[in-house]
Amino acid sequence: MAPSSCSELSLEVEPGPASRSGFKWNFNRADYGHGSTQQNWDDTLPDVSMASSSSSEPSLRIEVRPDSRSQAESSWNRVAYSGIDTLQYRTDLVINSLPADSDFNSLAKDYFDNSKNTLVLCTATGDCLRRAQNNHEIIRLAVKCFDEEVGTDKNKSGKTLEELKRFKAAEEPFFEELRALAGRVHLQQESLQRKFNARKGTLEQKLASLETWRRVSLAFFVVAFFSLLIFYVVASTKSLKHVITALGSALTLAIVPVGTWYNDRWNRNKEKEKKKLKLTTIMEFHAACTPIIRVLVFRLEVKFKSLLHSVDSVLTEGYALNVAMDKIKKDLKDVTDTIPDVLRRADDLGRETIMDWREILTRMMETL
Fold it and tell me: 62 and 116 share a domain?
């Protein structure tokens, strides 16, 4: 079953004879749309169909077009990310359980929004670079044609020039889009960093204040206890010695459990604040994880512009083809060697972001 549009990927399971249930799994990319990255979505998807066998279990048949095997893995990675819907639902439940005026409420929303934007950046980077890899097959064909053709005369290099023109026409200016996405995530992370620092400072001050008040309150409790005991002893020395003796014994026995309860209560509050501080520190660590992608995309853009300039030098400036092709071959090698590394980093970052999201959500449910 092929998807009906470039914005939705659906998997449908037809139940077997012994089963009366079925389900449908949708991943709506419109929720995480990012401009031109949604183009040619249909071209990157494998043909997928579900067929029922004679048993009650559905069977899965995947047909991958021979010319799109490199996109098949990417498509299934996107399907794996569809679990983000359930994760977002759980996140909303946890955040909605926080007090509306809580300072952590705003911080948690910003953190998870940053995680979502990071996933958008990873998906956009993967989509754009995989399309670029497909377009580079055109320029490889141009290099092959050049090697087969003789001389540098344009009449004898028609196929090479034709393929170079086709490559130039097929290229998409996606680096501007990636820069905008990466810049937005970067600004959001800078804002988060300031909020993390402010919250950590507040929690550290609160911890210090709790410890101070714990000591002061315990000292006040002990002083008040002995003051009361002395008052009763002085007031009733002559008349009710046996009563005062019993009262003093009772108060002496009571001070230990009461003091212990009082101290435990302060310690519980202190441990709760420590957990909040630890959670904030972990969130801060996980939030700062995209600079490497920004740097790699920037380096790739520089190499890619060099390749385009080499192609333009032949098509528009009339450079000798045999001289320009040497530069094109070198630039093409630089670009094709860099793209897999950026793709790997983007895929790793996407998986790490989802894992960090789940970890933070679990810690929030345990802490708050």
Answer: no
Contact 292, 345 (CB under 8 A): yes
* 353 and 282 fall within a common domain: yes
pLDDT (0 to 100) of residue 4 = 40
Q: Is 52 exposed, middle or buried (0-12, 13-18, 19+ CB in 10 A)?
A: middle
The whole-model pTM stands at 0.63
- Asked whether residue 180 falls in the same domain as residue 259, the answer is yes
For the segment 5-42, what is each residue's pLDDT rounded down to a tens digit? 333 333 333 344 333 333 333 333 334 333 333 344 34
Task: Answer yes or no: is 145 within a domain.
Answer: yes
The pair of structure tokens assigned to 132 is 């670029």
For residue 180, the enclosing domain spans 98-368
Contact 119, 32 (CB under 8 A): yes
Residues of the chain with pLDDT under 50: 1-82, 152, 154
CB burial string 80-99: b at 16+ within 10 A, e below: ebeebeebeeebeebbeebe
Is residue 87 situated within a structural domain?
Answer: no
